[in-house]
Every structure is written in C-alpha cells, then in structure tokens.
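ugh finaly. both done.
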Amino acid sequence: MATATAAETASAPAAAAPLRIVGGLANVNQYTRHEEPFWTQELPRLTNGKLRATIVPFDRAGIRGQDMLRLMQLGVVPFGTALVSLSSATEPLLGAADLAGLNPDMASLRRHVMAYRPFLEKTLRERHGVELLAIYVYPAQMLFCQRPLKGLADLAGRRVRTASATQADWVEALGAHPVNTAFAELTQNLRSGNVECALTGSMSGYTIGLQQHTRHLFTMPVSWGMAVFGANTGAWAALPADQRSTLKQELMRLEQVIWADSERETGDGVRCLTGEHACGGQPGRLQARAPTPADDQRRRNVLAGTVIARWIQRCGSPCAEAWNQTIGPISGVEARSGASPQ
C-alpha cells in the first residue's frame, strides 16, 4: 500500500477551521428546526465539507442579547444573530420595520422589511462593521392573559410582559404597565404573579408551556420578533469569494424558509394553544379572541400617536428621515421629528 511522503503531507491543504456561529433563542423551532441543522448538517453537505460550522444559541453562550452587535463589531462573535428588540436599545434605527402595532399581518411585515432593508444594510455596515446576511422573523407576538381580554380596552391596569422599548410604549399607551422580561424568565414571571399578561410568539408561547399559566389569547399581532444575522466585516472579507457567494445564496434560502415557517407557525400556535390541534405537547385550552375593527383602529392610532413619536425621541431626526424615505409612504403614517407623544 502506498503511503504519502512527508513532502506530500506538508503540501496538502489544511481543512478550514469551522465557522463559529452564535444563533438565536434556544428551545424555539427557528433554532432547533432551521438554524442549527443549516450550519451543522446542510452547509457541509452542500459544500462537500468545504464549509463547516459550530453553532450555539446566544442565550446559552453567556451573551446578553443587548451586547451582540458590539461583540460582532469587535470580532469576538464573527458570525451572529442579533434580536432587533434587544439591539434597538442601543441602535433604535434597527427596529423601524417591526415597531409595535405596525404589522397586523405577515404581508405588511414583508412590505415594510423590503422597503427598509437597503437602509438597514447600510447602517449595519457603516456604523457597526457588520455585513447583513439574513433577516429572520419569529411567529407573531400576541397577548397571553390570565384573565379575560375581550379587546384592547381591557388591557388597562394590567402588568404585561414586554420584550422591547417599542412594545413597552404600545402597552403603556393602552393604560397597562409594561414589565421588560427576558424570554427565558417569562414563565417564572407569570407563575410568580409579577405579570398577568405576556407578549410573545404564539408558537413560542406554546413551546414553553404558557397554556399552563394563562387562559386567554388575543390574536392581534403586536410585533413579530425580527432578528438580523450578520458577520463581522473582517471575518466576512477573510472568506474566499466562492464561499461568500455560497453563503449568501444559501442564507437567502434559509431566510425564506424561516419566514414561511413563521407565518405557518403563527396560525399553528393559535390552534395548538386553543386545543384545535393535538400538537405533541401539553394540550391547550386557551380562549382565543380576534381583534375587532375598533381594536384595529386603536392599534393604528397608538402606533401613529405614541409608538413612532417615542421611537423618534430615542434616536432623533435620522429615524424620522429614514422612516419617511422608506416605510412611511407604504404604511401611510408619517414620522414627525420633534412631535410629542400623545
């Protein structure tokens, strides 16, 4: 049997080190069904082993979601998933396409993200040194409550779990008390009585067992839970051109799969929570109520009168300008710099 000479061994190309990926939230379908299999199984298969990766969800990696963009900018996280709701605390511009009350359905979200995407790419590259490679979205964020909720007017006075400043603005404008709570702490806060309602994804809520801690579901999408996946620009430039091309192509495919699944899971989550479907977990018996035309009008009034104004207060005239050049003409809502919230 022939054996390789020392010279041949020395000249053989070394296997590329696996890419280090920090993914989204652990224990939700987006990560377990899509992100993790894409990096650990599909990508090596599609590239005949030329591209390999390891991945860990950020909330199991000892990383605060609020720090993700900064860690990507520094190169500490070369490839990472940043939840817009958390990153918007330091960069409010990121959250324009998913402000609370803006997108009552997936079609609206698609239009607004498409309009805003070029500006988002430019902002991430120039201000944060991050190359935008994909935009992910979780199922619609809805209101889970322990007591009946017939409409938005019934929310007044209740303590509501929120996950972002824009959700807090929306809840507060309805007379409720927002309580910012990490996803991992959501059930404990409901169990302890710290909150009596929670804003979270329909399927995400089912997955973590909110059907055991709440009794009522208001099915109006308040927001959708966007996330951006990107790379430190130095780490991205260091990859060979053919690998960058492959990643862009395959990540666009992954993005489309995640969006389609999130739209489907929005409805499936409601059916699982109400017991219409047997979904494999604890049976749900929540009472679901859809928004009325009056609720939808109030959603839009709160968006225009409070949510956008407070968002502009946090990041100034650049937000108003970006909104009016991209999302404003599509949504029919103008942003006015310096306007006071109602």
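ok and the 2nd:
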Amino acid sequence: MDFEVLKTKFFEALDREGGSVSAAARAVGVNRNTSFGWARQAGVRGRGKSGTSGHPGRAEYERLRALHPRFLNVTERETIADMHRAGHSLRAIGRALGRPASTVKREIDARAVDGVYRPHRAQRAWAESRSRPKASELAADGPLRRYVEDKLCERWSPQQISHAVVIEFPDDENMRVSPEKLYQAVYVQARGGLRREIAEAPRSGCTRRKPHRGPEQRTRRFVDEMVMISERPAEVEDRAVSGHGEGDLIVGPRSDSAIVTLVERSTRYVMLGHLPGGHTAEEVRDVPVPLIQTLPEHLRGSLTWDRGCETAAHQQFTVATGVPVYVCDPHSPWQRGSNENTNGPLRQYFPKGTDLSVHSAEDLEHVARQLNGRPRKTLGWKPPAERLRDLLTAA
C-alpha cells in the first residue's frame, strides 16, 4: 500500500478511536513507534490514562497533511537540525533542501530555543502558530449586522454599504466591513450568517456567486477556426473585382425573427433571406446557400460577415457553396460598409421593433427588387440591377 494512503488511513482511524494512537495503529496494521512518530509530526497528543484526548480532530489532520510545498515539513526540519548540528553552512543546507538559505536562517532563528534547534518541537510550534478560521463580523448579532441587513433590504450594493459605513461611523472601528465580506455573507450562508430573505435582497437577485472566466477559459464562439478579414485578398478592398459580398442580419424584437442581408460590394446588389423562426448558426448557414447559387460562378468570390455567433458554421457554408467566409474584427462594422449602408434603407420596409416573421419570402423578394431598382449615387446614379446586368452581359 502507498505510504501516504496508509498515513491517511491511520489518521482516520485515530478519529474513530477517540485519539488513541495505539488503537489506531492496530486498526491499520502500523508499527506502534511509526504511528507515534506520525502523531508527533502532526502535533497530536495521544489519549492519556484519564481517557482525555489532545488531538485536534480530523479537519486539523487534513489541514496539516495537505500542505502547500512552500511550507517546511517535518522531514525538512529534521534535515535542518542534523546538518546544522554537523556544522554545515546555511547555503549548504538550503541546497540540500532546494530552498533559499534565507528560509533556513528564518526557521532556525524563529524556532531555536537557547541556540538549540529541535525539529519536532519546531514542527509543533509552527502548527500551533498557523492561522485558524475566524468567525465573520456578520455572524453575530450587533449594530454592524443590523446596518448591513437594512441597507441590503434597500437594494444597496456591497460596495455602497462598505463605503457608507465608514462615512456614517468614522470613529467606530467595529463598524467596518469589506465588500468581499459582504459577498461571502450573501453567497455563503454557513459563513456569512445572514438570513435567507436578506441574502436574496441584492439587486442582481442572485444567491450564488457566478465564476468569471478569463479569455483563455471561455468557450470558443467558433468551433471552426475563424478566417479574419486581414487574410482577405487585397483585390476585394478596392471593389475593382466583382463577386465579393458582405452579409449581416437585421433582427426583430427579442431576437425571435431575422432577415439575412447579402450585398455585392461592387454593384451594391441586394439579396434577402427569410428567417422567421430564429437565427441559429445552422439556419444562417442554410438560408444564404440558395441565394448565392443563383449567381454565376465568377460572381461567387467571397463573403465578409460580422463577428457573430450566427456565423459559427461558416466552414460548412464554404463547403456547400465554394465561397470563403471572412470575419470582421471585433466592434468594426465599417469593415462591412456596403452592408451597413444597406440595412438603413431596409428599415423603411422593416421598422425596428416589428415582428419580421410576418413577412414572406415573396415580400422579401419584392423589397430586394425595389432596392436594386433605386439609382445609387456611388454608381453614377445607376441602379444595382443595371450594373449587375452589365456584368452578366459582358461575361
């Protein structure tokens, strides 16, 4: 059996046997001298003849055994004692332990008695000096707790309460509480001590703390790797080559319905797709496919889209149509200028706040035909439909 596993079983048996080291040793089959050594290392006094026990309990054993590597353990303290007694330098002892010499010096200076360093006594002294959990300032009834409860019921935030209590009680050091202590009192009932109805008073309405993940821990928006707009061919930028489009959505209230808008960059030709039931990645992937396939192959150059969740299936769209998709930089709508300028006129037909699901595919085709028939200043006052027809005729 693994040494650490056996040691764990010994301490568990010590709890069951009421602190009797001998009984715990027999229960797990450990030599009596070994078990007493473990008990001494943990600072545990075995049960005496009177039947009383000085052991601190299972929680203390767990705390002493699960030490962070930065803490010296009893084996390292024994090494310090042996090498110090043999006359080795602090640096030599530090190299043997893999620790700085300053750590060894502080340990000897702090734990030696009359110039003699004894490792087991040093271990017990260190264990007794470790910080113990303290009760929260709000655990007991008093002016601070009543003040906090009153302000929470008035929907004050923990930060507001923490600063206000200093202003209202500038000379009373007992009337102090940090925002973190308040959050612990609200979210951790066993630690905070506030009543459940008070804990539900925060403005957020949450009674549990939500973890905030860093950028490296967040779920990726795109399963397939994004192809950024910086990788788009330079010929697309100056609009000299036709067949490169821009895509976006206009969304109805509560995002229940949407319309796909596709705009060809050089001719400003508009195509609209119907999304009456939502705009998931799969729906947005499927709707533009038949729209793109109505164009001849030489006008299927690329598609630039917003950085939204609805484009998560962009690689599947590329496989179906042969059209590569490029994603804009965050918060950069001007990188799809043609599409953004087209969404404004579209709101004449589909005002904001209106249900877009009531419009049929035929309605969208009618609106697209009207937009493509309007003369555009940027096209020399020619309509997009005429410019597209000229391209097809030349081809």
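summary for the 2nd one i guess: The chain has four domains: 3-65, 74-129, 143-199, 229-394.
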